[in-house]
Design brief:
318 residues, alpha/beta, six-stranded parallel β-sheet, 13 strands
Length: 318
């Protein structure tokens, strides 16, 4: 049986699949050629990340396809309900990338409160001629400890962010339509741990009371944060989005940054991927990464092996 890992898969995932008797193809097939490639090569499983889309046209054109797998959480690039209505298994790995995404959130938070994104642009240009000027420009950093972090979306990733925030001594508040409360277990290297109970609140409360806000929601029909939501927020709030592009109105975000309402933003995802707006890319108050939330070696290892286990379980053990 053949598996097409069109957006790549970790070596550990390949190894596990081959051990299970599968042939793994890692050739990158262009989107418009995917259906033809699947049929020509008798592929039964296609694995994607965020690049390849598996829509109704591919599902209809590939009667031999049995499993569609998404390495990661969000499945907005797959017509999930339609695939399942046609008898296909659709799988993903929601737990595998939580820690990696949470760490990137804090990379953006630390970057924002200490102006690292801007310092790293300007030090190479002016560090030898304007050292004292830059030192003065970046002298009013703030600490995360003791501040309130508002988490919008309190699933696995939101809860992983909460653990790190609690470890830093932050107050954590959260909003989620589907989670009423969660016990956050903060583990330490020596086996000790503490449990912290967090009861979720309204979105309005999160916007009003947070010093920093981080989003962990799936793709939405509308914006979670638009002009009205920015008005509710504290002055000098920091915003991080490592979830999905399109959940923040980027035009309203730039306005809020320019007006001084928002101190900084950290963005890993964008409304227009893979061609984000130039106003976003050039803005001195935005820390930028190119959709790399789950792009750590550890997360990709976990994603690959977890996909392999699910595929073997579905196709070999039935």
């Amino acid at each position: 049986m053949k598996v097409l890992a069109n957006d790549g898969i970790s070596k550990s995932g390949i190894k596990a699949l081959e051990k299970g008797g599968f042939e793994v193809i890692t050739t990158k097939v262009a989107q418009e050629q995917v259906a033809n490639y699947i049929n020509t090569n008798d592929v039964q499983v296609i694995l994607v990340r965020s690049a390849t889309k598996v829509r109704k046209d591919i599902i209809d054109a590939c009667p031999g396809l049995k499993i569609i797998g998404r390495g990661g959480v969000g499945m907005d690039n797959i017509d999930v309900d339609y695939a399942r209505s046609k008898g296909l298994h659709v799988i993903n790995t929601p737990a595998s990338s939580s820690e990696s995404v949470a760490e990137l959130v804090f990379a953006h938070l630390f970057t924002g409160v200490r102006f690292l994104h801007d310092a790293n642009r300007n030090m190479p240009l002016e560090g030898d001629t304007n050292f004292d000027g830059l030192k003065k420009a970046y002298a009013n950093g703030i600490e995360l400890r003791g501040k309130t972090l508002g988490i919008v979306g309190f699933g696995r990733i939101g809860q992983a962010v909460a653990k790190m925030a609690l470890g830093l001594g932050m107050k954590v508040i959260a909003a989620d339509k589907f989670v009423n409360e969660a016990v956050i277990r903060v583990d330490f290297y020596d086996g000790q741990f503490i449990n912290v109970n967090i009861v979720t609140e309204s979105l309005e409360n999160i916007f009003k009371h947070s010093d920093f806000i981080t989003l962990h929601v799936p793709a939405q029909d509308g914006y979670v944060i638009d002009k009205a939501e920015f008005q509710l927020m504290k002055d000098n709030v920091g915003i991080v989005n490592c979830a999905r592009g399109g959940v923040i109105n980027e035009v309203a975000l730039i306005e809020a940054l320019d007006e001084g309402k928002v101190l900084f933003a950290g963005l890993d995802v964008f409304e227009n991927e893979p061609t984000p707006e130039i106003q976003i890319l050039m803005h001195p108050k935005i820390s930028l990464t190119p959709h790399i939330g789950a792009a750590t070696e550890e997360a990709q290892d976990r994603i690959g092996t977890e996909l392999a286990e699910q595929i073997i379980s579905l196709l070999k053990n039935n």
